[in-house]
Amino acid sequence: MTEIGMAELLSRLRELSQQAQARPSGTTPPLQTDGFQKLLKSSIEQVNGAQQQAQSLARAFEAGDPNTDLAAVMVAMQKASVSFQAMTQVRNKLVAAYQEIMSMPV
């Protein structure tokens, strides 16, 4: 490295050191957890919507609505069931990961 390159590097290191010292101790930048939280919430809402749709189709079929097909009711109920089972499996994996992290020695 040339002397100019070393001088620039040292200058930059000094700036970073001063910035680190200027920050109050114990403060860290805020974590952004909105992405995962929003994803989880929207997934739960979709599963809930599928279950509500299946229930409304089933009620309409039971009431004798001529526009409601038995096949559509069964497909909606299976979609709701599969989505709920998938959500349950995701929850189980999250709980297992949490338990594994909490059991790690610090």
Textual characterization of the structure:
By secondary structure, this protein is an all-alpha fold. The protein has a domain at 33-106. Helix content is 77%, strand content 0%. The protein has helices at 3-22, 34-62, 70-102. Helix 2 runs antiparallel to helix 3 (70-102). The longest helix is centred in the C-terminal third of the chain and has 33 residues, at 70-102. The two termini are 41 Å apart. The mean pLDDT is 84.
Shape descriptor reads elongated
Tell me about the biggest sheet? none
Order of helices and strands: HHH
Tally of alpha and pi helices? 3
| Average pLDDT over all residues | 84
Radius of gyration: 28 Å
Class per helix and strand makeup: mainly alpha
SS strand fraction: under 5%
Oligomer status: single chain
Which regions contain 5 or more consecutive residues with pLDDT less than 50?
Answer: none
Measure the end-to-end span: 41 Å
Number of strands: 0
Query: Helix content range of the residues, please?
Result: over 70%
What key phrases describe this protein's structure?
106 residues, mainly alpha, 3 helices, 0% strand, elongated
Write the layout of secondary structure elements.
Elements: H1 3-22, H2 34-62, H3 70-102
Helix pairs in contact: 2-3
What does this entry show, briefly?
The chain contains 3 helices and no strands. The protein has 106 residues and is mostly helical. The longest helix is centred in the C-terminal third of the chain and has 33 residues, at 70-102.
